[in-house]
Structures are given as structure tokens and as C-alpha cells.
Design goal:
two-stranded antiparallel ribbon, 239 residues, 15% strand, alpha/beta
Amino acid sequence: MFFKTLQKNACGLIFPDLCIACRNTLTNDKWLCEECLRRLEINHVRRDPCPLCGQNRAARICTCSVASPFPFDAAYSLFDFDQTIKTVVHEIKYKGQKRLAFDMATAYAHLVPPAFFEGMHAVVAVPLHFFRMMTRGYNQAEILAKGFTAANASRLERIENALVRKRATKTQTRLSRTRRKRNVQGAFVVSPAKRRLIENKNIILVDDIITTGATTGECAAALLAAGSGIIRVLSLVRD
């Protein structure tokens, strides 16, 4: 045991763990250095989220008053999209860092206002299409959902794979608001095997990033059509 500890400490001196965002040496956190953690804290504190769409009204004009009504009851995002959180999301989605998704959800779930969870029964993730799931090996939204549920174990159950993406869709990244909505329209359905579990349940729908709300809106519509109660959307990031 002594020699294993000595070996680990020696490796740490030669090859120190680095921050995933800025590549500086880590001190107390597993993923991010003190400065990047401070940036995340500032990012969160500077948010004035719209209670319906989650948009940061301190940075952008909320369009809820003129946009089509969302099928969900409320939305909340922990952070605005910036360079630090962009790197975090990139590591999660494209670098195989699925543990990072779980750790971010459990570490920052306390930032969600307690009222957001009141009256809610279950957590459901936005699904990936089968082929993208096979390529990536995991659904980052499902892992975030698992982390948020773990942080609220006494209040919420997680219904895994409740939603199915029944057709492949283009990436939403470079699409306009109108094309985003058209791209995902009718793309989601509740799994027949999970329908009974979501009936009359108030559900928190989890995704990694909310941009226009097109994807989460379609998922919420599918849950409501299958008999769920109200839907609230929770994401790591609001773009």
C-alpha cells in the first residue's frame, strides 16, 4: 500500500492532473482549476433566468411574450454558454468524459431553486437516436439526469429511456429557430414500455443545452400526449 501511494504521488509530480478547460494544474477539484470554478460561479450568479424559457434576461431580451407557447411549464439552466462551459460540454459529448456529466450534475444541483423541484415526481432525459447512441456509447443527457436524481434521491425517481427518438435528425447547431423546430417536429415518442411509468407524473426533462427550446418542446409534447402531468425542463447550459 505504501509503495502504491508513493508511486501515485511520484506520477502526480511528473504528470500532474490538468484542468480540462485551461490546462492549468488542478488543486482541489477533479476536473477544473480554482480559476475556472470561480468563472462558473460568476457565470451562474450573473444569470437572471426567465421562469418560462430559462433565458438570461440580464444578457438578452427574452422573447417568450412573442414566441409560440412552450408545452413545458418552466425551464431552468445552471449556466450561460461561455468558453469554460463550452469546453466542459465538448469534453462530455465528444471526448468520452461521461463521468464529468454526472459530477457536474451532482456538484451543481444545489444551484437549482428548491421551488423548481416542488411537486415533481420523476426525471426523464432527452434521448439520442439509436445510431448516434451507438457511435458515442452513451447519452450525456441521461447521465446528467442520473446525476440530478442522485442529488435529489429522496424526492425524484429517474425513468430511464422513457423517450425514444424515432427518426434521426440533423444537428441543431447551425440551424435557424424555424428550421430547428421543423427538424425535430414529431421526432420523439414515449416508449410503450415506459408509458405506464410516466402517466400522471410531473416530470423534469433533462438536456445538456437549451437553445431555442425546439428539442425540449417536442419531447415535452410527446410526454404530455402520453398522459404525463406538467413538464419542467432542466439543463446544464442555456445558449
